[in-house]
Amino acid sequence: MKLIKKIKNNYLAKCRYLKYVEKLSIKDHVILLESQQGKEFGGNMYYLIKELLNDTQYDAFDIYMAVQKEKIEEAQQFYQSRGLQKVKFVKSNSCAYFKLMASAKYLMNDNTFLPFFIKKEGQVYLNTWHGTPLKSLGKKINNDLHNIGNTQKNFVASDYLLYPNEYTKDHMIEDYMINNLCTNTYLLEGYPRNTAFFDDELKNQIKQEYHLNNKKVIAYMPTWRGTLSNKSNPIVQANINYILEEFENNLKDDQILYVNLHPIESSSVDFSIYKKIKPFPKKYETYEFLNVIDVLVTDYSSVFFDFLNTRSKIILYVYDHEDYLSSRGLYRGLDTLPFPIVETMDEVLKEINKPKEYDDSSLVEEFCKYDCKDASNHILERVLFGNKENIVEGKITDNKKENVFIFAGRLANNGITTSLKNLLNNVDTNEKNYYLLFNANAVKKNLDTLREFSDVVNYYSIKGIMNLNICKKILNKIYGLKWISTKSYMRKMENAYQCELQRIFGGARVDSIIHFTGYGTKSINLYSQFKGKNAIYVHANMKEEINLRSNQRFDAIEYAYNTYDRVAVVTDDMIEPTYEISKNRENIHVCRNVIDYQSILEKSKLDLTLDEITVVYPSPSHLFNILNSNHTKFINVGRFSPEKGQMRLLESFAKLQKKYPDTNLIIVGGSSYKDYYSQIVQCVEELGLKDKVVLVKTLSNPFPLVKQCDCSVLTSFAEGFGLVLAEADVLNVATFSVDIPGPKKFMEKYGGTLVENSDQGIYQGLVDFMNGKIHPMGIDYAEYNKEAVHEFETLFS
Fold first, then answer.
1. Helix residue spans in 425-462 (DSSP H)
2. What is the pTM (predicted TM-score) of this model?
3. Is pLDDT of 531 > 50?
């Protein structure tokens, strides 16, 4: 029964959200506020509500606050105790909540609405965020740079973005990469919560109530060091207990410590055992009580920027400085701040007993110049009534250039990712704004690759799943079972896909979308419905590949090639196989792969280095012994997958061994299709080639290895182009390929060698090289790239 109730209250409620978005009209005098996704009810949202309910000019508005179920009673008691009974609380993720999300004209948040959120036309969204950042955010978060999509979406969906200072504005706009995506209004105004620092009457009231007038009041407010995946950290908890013990044993009789910890950490602390340590009182909002503090002890928390308003002493206790920097990063070095910076509790206690001995006037000017007692009113008058008199504002910059979103899949270590990297390194990024587009969960294992891309172009990350009602979920399941055709499925899902695009982009200006990988039925279907310009790439003979691997739905590809504005094939050879699928030549456009020859040459000059995840069969030492020998070395580069033809290459090489024993074969691959790598290992051993063949799985820089080989061999059953042929040629390594569409016209145009597409043809190619008949092609790649870049840049012309 509990499970049924949970499904009814949460799952079914969310399923109805799209209906509410479509059917409910917007209520002009309804305001919905949410703090920390319903986990809190204080902060900026509390001070906005306080202003809304205490100023009669806002009497016409109905005020709702979304709070998680377990917090509602506590929130109601808190607001009632402050005389704020008119605010109505709604349970997060309930039917009432989703109805308000779809009908309230005004939406206000200090974090983000969850990924399901779709902002309707006519709604007005104020995002205040929740602090001046010291910790790196957005693309500068070292270990989480991919996971920023929901924040990006919320920012571009916001009509008003509140920043308490220029420093925060610049970092938030730049590191969430929202320039050129929107022209939303930013407000430079004090934080609503910082109005507490200007309330001397309440400050004196609290001091009297807690008998603090003759006390030195200290606050300890550390950053939460847990993660969403590891919420309970025993090492962190043990350290907190040690810190509290040190305070308890060393504070003087006229000193008292108030502690504000993350709820997860606070729940493990028994404050009743301490005489000189207490938690922040729940009776007051955090900043109301913070206003009475004489000394703040914190670390990387943004609270110290706000606390500057009090001009009281700040101590930064950073016992884990180096570790924290390596995982998160900071916008400015701690040594640029005037506060005492300490790493031991002995130093903390000494600083508590010393007067403030630094000048923070320049920091106050930089970070707090907009803070004032009327900030909440200034913000609300601007958002609700359009009053601009008391506020500084501006627009997010938009250079008006075309925004091109390129869907990049998983950013896996393969030829498609390499070709995209080459392309973006060569296109003129001053002509258009290019954005890498991906699902956050899909790229989490390839963050190093993402970092490489982020040095060249901006990116947009997708979070969450598609909003579907029950009927559409069933239809989705039926389609996954292949019980319905893609054409019929897409006809029934058209509205759902339009809502999904709206959910993902949140109003961002997207002019064109290029599905660069050309793989993945869900994403192919989704971007086929984009109303702007769209294109899909074809990197292989898809008909042959589907026959070999069954890795795509044929009817989905057929539908896509007839729906996208452009179908970009990477070689002339791919025109006919693609036409066989679509029966439509009009939208087929050749976009050859760019060859980043300069990067290839530079990387080839580096020492051959195996990555931590590199697997070498039979051993790394065997690989280096072969490279140091005078044997002839053949190399094959491509993912370990049936269509790459590695098995038939091994068969042909085994035959070559009988005639030319002083030869070796190196096969380099990235990802493996199912257990195919293991099958190749087994094949090597069954053919008795363990001493002659080396398999290298996952190598980030293969070019020093390719450079040391004599001949690169392409043996695939199906290829779109065969990028490895050009890469080897750049390094002046001889190449040959089996005669298949994809590499065929490239090799013919530039005098390369093609052999019969068979085991015998591959064997003959190996023999021909040994007899001096196969040589490098010596292509002018600078000229080649000019043509390839032009083909891409005129894709929609």
1. 440-443, 447-454
2. 0.88
3. yes
